[in-house]
Amino acid sequence: MENNTIYDLKTIGERIKNSRKTAKLTQEDLANELSVRRDRISKMESGKDKRLNLSHLIKLSELFNCDIGYLLGEYDAQSAAVEKISEITGLSPKAIKTLRKETTGLFPIPKNNYPDFGVVVDFLLCSETGKQFLHHLSDYLFDDVTLRYKGNELEENLSLYNPNRKTEYALNTLDIKAVLVSLIQNDLVNLKKENENGSDF
After folding, report:
1. CA 68, CA 57: separation in Å to the nearest integer?
2. Residues 6 or more apart whose Cβ sits within 8 Å of residue 22
3. Which of 92, 135, 158, 200 is 20 to 30 Å from 46 by CA-CA measure?
4. Is 0.90 topped by the overall pTM?
């Protein structure tokens, strides 16, 4: 069955240029790798090279450690697998790349002192306390802190409730941030205990 897909040469050129710069290669360096003249690389990157062939794309994908589909503009992540993981999890390609480096031992952290990052992420996502920690952290980092914490319920007013005195205190942004920091610290203490006890989630 014939593939009639038409690719945009300008998009391909931009992907090649961006990948070359990320790899810290000059056009001359790339020309040497592909055994072509430097002006040919210039044409590729400007989307004017209609002679770009499969062998070039294969070599480029090897040099840039990406899928050919990324260079062709079929997806935005550097590999189809990363694109799929990003769609499912909402993680950015950069976050997935970092997680992959951590779990494959490529990240510059002494592995005899720290567990794989993937183990930590798995621990947080499988533990109810871990998920609570992530929610509190999200509130602290990203949410508009016009929130009210009363037990575990989130409400609209910015205040704290004292059940013994049955009084409420209006909070400003700094106050609620301090409350969230306290909750995060408490979550971390509980997570440490769960880990030490070897809790089965």
Report:
1. 6
2. 64
3. 92
4. no
